[in-house]
Amino acid sequence: MKLWGGRFSKSTAKLVDKFNASIYFDKKLYKQDIIGSIAYTKMLEKCNIITDEESFKIINGLKEILKEIEDGSVQFKIEYEDIHMNIEKLLIDKIGDVGKKLHTARSRNDQIAVDMRLYLKEEINNICNILKNLLKTLIYISEKNIDTIMPGYTHMQRAQPITLAYHLMAYFQMFKRDYLRLIDCINRMDYLPLGAGALAGTTYSTNREFLAKELGFKNICDNSLDAVSDRDFVIEFLSTASIIMMHLSRFCEEIIIWNSSEFNFIEMDDSFSTGSSIMPQKKNPDVPELLRGKTGRVYGNLISLFTVMKGLPLAYNKDTQEDKEGV
User: Fold this and answer.
1) Which of 19, 30, 173, 252, CA to CA, is 20 to 30 A from 206?
2) Of the listed 9, 142, 260, 276, which one is catalytic?
3) Cα(191)–Cα(214) distance, integer angstroms
């Protein structure tokens, strides 16, 4: 019996189970789902919706499940569809019926919305750190080449003399804007959707401000319909990621050109190059070529989600499940 199957008289067809399930990819959100559930349990206890003893059992059970998942001893099951229901089933199996109380006043709709925001906040911070390293590297190379003269181009024709440092610092400005866009992206997604329920809140007296503080959100979503159906924050991230990839692709294009015999401005390091099976004189810039090529993949993810979202009525629709793989 499905956790949602109370009114159904037939079992779901196995083909539908397979087609409907998102556990293949949303299993990556296990940590965020458990962190969110632990905070949610504390809130239920604080609001006297569950007892101290029930809260203790649920939280300990969730912590044990987290350890088991990270140890590789958990097998997620398609019949439980997604990461939320898989973890809930694992919890009920571990601590009994008290585990069912975790779902009180909560829907998978607001649950996935908070999981995605927690995941993206963490990942964006990781990307920001990578960008900072790139910015430092550009400064380092520029400082060593303040007096390295090179031609500046317009229309791919030699125009005016500049320095290599000046050229590289143009890319510094691009990637600095990308960094700032990511920070803006976090600021706009830093609102807690948990507590919105399926679409219209709950009749239970919950405490969303407490939840926001526990989970590190600066504020709460003002409208429950919007909270569960909004994927603007995902689209904004994918848009920013696409701009980053565009800048990387432009940079890679120049590296590829500069590495050619016709330009001969630079030589790629052996450890970041490949050769030819029949032309031993060649050194191929495969890494920048692949980066340039993978830009299309990121653009595709953005356009895909734009297309998914463009015709969706309020509130949650199953189409929204398509937001995760691209991210």
Assistant:
1) 30
2) 276
3) 13
Annotation marks residue 276 as catalytic: yes
Please give the helix or strand (H or E) that residue 305 lies within, else none.
helix 286-309
Question: If you search the block for the tokens 């810039």, which residue do you land on?
Answer: 285
Q: Which residues lie closer than 8 Å to 252 by C-beta, 6 or more apart?
A: 288, 289, 291, 292
Q: Which of 9, 155, 271, 277 is an active site residue?
A: 155
Per-position pLDDT tens, the chain of length 327: 666 666 777 888 889 989 999 999 999 999 999 999 999 999 999 999 999 999 999 999 999 999 999 999 999 999 999 999 999 999 999 999 999 999 999 999 999 999 999 999 999 999 999 999 999 999 999 999 999 999 999 999 999 999 999 999 999 999 999 999 999 999 999 999 999 999 999 999 999 999 999 999 999 999 999 999 999 999 999 999 999 999 999 999 999 999 999 999 999 999 999 999 999 989 999 999 999 999 999 999 999 999 999 999 999 999 999 999 999
103 as an active site residue: the answer is no
